[in-house]
Amino acid sequence: MQSLSKTNLADTAAEAIRAEILHGRWAVGDKLPNEAALSAMLSVSRSTVREAVRVLVSQGILETRQGSGTYVLSTADTTRPLAMARHAGLRDQFEARLALDAEAARLAALRRTPAVVAHLRTLLAARGNSDGGDRAGFIARDLAFHQAVITASQNAVLIGMYDFFSTLLAETIEASLGEDLPEPDMAAHAAIVDAIESGDPDAADAAVRRFMAPVLSALDRLLLS
Predict the structure, then answer these.
(1) What are phi and psi of 189, to 5 degrees?
(2) Rg for the chain (alpha carbons), in Å?
(3) What is the Cα–Cα distance from 85 to 91, expressed in whole angstroms?
(4) What residues have CB less than 8 Å from 64, skipping those under 6 apart?
(5) What is the pLDDT of residues 87-106, one digit of tens each?
(6) Do 70 and 32 touch, CB atoms closer than 8 A?
(7) What's the pLDDT score for residue 132?
(8) Rounded distance between C-alpha atoms, residue 77 and residue 81, angstroms
């Protein structure tokens, strides 16, 4: 490893460790050298090494085991897909959200139970309509409703994807609260729940697409203006 400059040492140390993992120095399951050894390799303090490890743990690349040490958990940087998505255009983001929501609604319709439908209606009632006041609270309530639809799909991968992109999805909800994009109203949300309750996956899919259509149309107009 190369020694590091004094700028953003923890981030730079994390990048250096990640690079060594990607180049095969340590494979998945391997134990990393201890703090003192990494500190010497990188020419940084042990506190900087600890912070770099925390960064990589948060990214799912490393895991720490109490009393054992630090191990390579994955060679995939789970933050990069989110970073790429956040740099994509707003229409791309809404299209991706539509794909997730539509498939989840289809599966939810096939797997619905009275308790699930009742829970969705409770969350929808709590969501209410945006009055322009507590914006953050409204976004949280709206996201909770949509996450519940995803959970109702009973598909672990869809649920995990939605959780992973929850920050980005909250940003798409916030974007629809602006003056240029229409926020789907309560009737559009209720139509999704009704379609899920009906047990018809095609109806659930169609309800989500009707829900999102005005937003996508508005985005198209903005792109052409």
Answers:
(1) -70, -45
(2) 22
(3) 11
(4) 53, 57, 70, 71
(5) 557 788 888 889 999 999 99
(6) yes
(7) 66
(8) 8
Does the pLDDT value for residue 82 go beyond 60? no
Tokens 């980005």 sit on residue? 168
Q: Can you tell me the distance from the alpha carbon of 14 to that of 55, in angstroms, rounded to the nearest whole number? A: 7
Alpha-carbon distance of 79 to 64, in angstroms, equals 19
Q: How many CB atoms lie within 10 A of CB 217?
A: 12
* Cα distances (Å, whole numbers) of residue 6 to 33, 40, 48, 49, 112: 22, 15, 11, 13, 56
Which residues have a Cβ under 8 Å from the Cβ of 203 and sit 6 or more positions away?
Answer: 109, 195
Separation between Cα atoms, residue 194 and residue 120, nearest integer Å: 10
User: Has residue 179 got a pLDDT over 60?
Assistant: no
Span 177-205, average pLDDT: 89
Whether residue 29 contacts residue 71, with contact meaning beta carbons closer than 8 Å, is answered with: yes
Name the pTM for this structure: 0.63
- The overall longest dimension of the chain from CA atoms, in Å, is 64
